[in-house]
Amino acid sequence: MPKIKHPFAPEFIYQVDDDGNIRISNGNTWGTFTKEGIHLSGEIRHADPQLCVWVANNPSPDGQLRSSAVTAKRS
Amino acid sequence: MSEAYKPLDPVSMPRSPGVTYQELLDLDSRPVPEVLRLQSPKDMGLQQYSVKRYTSAEWHDREVEHLWKKVWQFACREEDIPEPGDHYRYDIAGMSFLVLRTETGELKAYPNACLHRGRMLKEFDGNAAELRCPFHGFCWKLDGQLKDIPADWDFPQINQDDFSLPEIPLAVWAGFIFINPDQNCAPFDDFISDLASQFERWNLGSLYKQAHVAKVMPCNWKIAQEAFCEAFHVNATHPQIMRSIGDVNSQVDIWENCARVITPGGTHSPLLTDVSTADLMRSMMDLDFDAEVPEVPDEMHLRQFLADRSRENLRPIAGDRADLYCDAELMDSLDYTLFPNFHPWGAFNGIVYRFRPNGNDHRSAIMECIMLAPFEGERPPAAKVHWLKEDENWSSALGFLGKVFDQDSFNMPKVQMGLESTYMNGIVLSGYQESKVRWLHHKLTEWVGE
Ligand code: FES
Ligand SMILES: [Fe+2]
After folding, report:
1. For residue B345, which of B177, B250, B313, B349 is within the disulfide window of CB 3.0 to 4.6 Å?
2. For residue B243, what is the nearest residue in chain A, using CA coordinates?
């Protein structure tokens, strides 16, 4: 599942969990959020909603009308 | 040029710390075209613009009367109607127009309305040998001349030689068909000249329409459009790409009828310090923070390395034309706007946006993204419009770019709601970074009033 560190707060890792929610952790604490950034559970209670929108957005490669100019394969 | 546009000195004007766009161009591995060396920053004051522009039906009505019924506007591509009889329905603010190709290959535009009792002549795009109204069967030839009136004995008042469909002005630039609902409008050449002179090098007419995606957005059309007119929002709306684009040192240039924002890629935001080359590449390629990335040779500037990758991606479809473009043309967002709502990107990207009111609901807009692409040999057929449903993401059709749009779209209804709720009278705009938004509002004041 894709994961990303917040550029302004790189200790926070945003990752999609097995339920399709966003899990944010900084090593010690964590929180889960909807893909719009609404808090669901855990000690971390605030998320950057736009980064939740981003990591949750994993379009199917089928149905794409055009690919990006700079591309890389996800491992 | 309008008096409100005071030229600024690009060297001494206030600007973001960090490398300038012109300094990045100095590092290019190829000769940089003149058009990228142009700089036209303008001081247009710091005034606020009324919130009513987004929230009031009365303002929308004035916009319809004084703007949409009067202005040159992009309707469709020439390639959307390649054959005689092909027709395209273009709607704007509750009005419908028909753009078609006649038997002789000429392009014409008519109000999409029967001259009998007004039914739309065509509600779908398609091909027809004649324009026969589905209500009572009045019929016109493709060139607009009356062809047939069923039971014409019953219409003694109609002079059949003088009952042609009214034509409205139409013009073509770079494969884009523009129409103007105003039969007494100003000449198209004056309207397009600023933009056309800058696109000589990027012949968008030589590209074909590979994709065309549209979606109804729950906000005023200007809220949707303005989300694409500055890069200042990147730090909050698209934090994930800050590591790979120079958001706040974008260059903004204002001319009379067009404006542009150039945002450099392959360089990190001045709002971040200490971005590693690997992190920059991961951000650019949308990879996880611990993913492997290719090695950049020591002697090579990263922008050059990434531009080379783009060239190789482009080569299978563009052939040797891939080598014509400098690094900047492959790496940067050259986001142009032609007043009021047409947004072609410069260079190779072939991205074009259009924003317009959805009917006469001033809280609803149609947002479209067209992707143009080069081709070898015969021109491929133009893509049909792919309408996204309310719950469908832009990413479902447009991948990485669509993911970025989905973040912009996430804001739009909330901006509408906020503007309905605010105690501010007007919106606040920055002096430089948001000057393209200011330019739009300045033009709107000229056309529509305060
Ligand atoms: S920071 Fe721009 S609208 Fe709030
Ligand atoms: Fe954006």
Report:
1. B349
2. A7
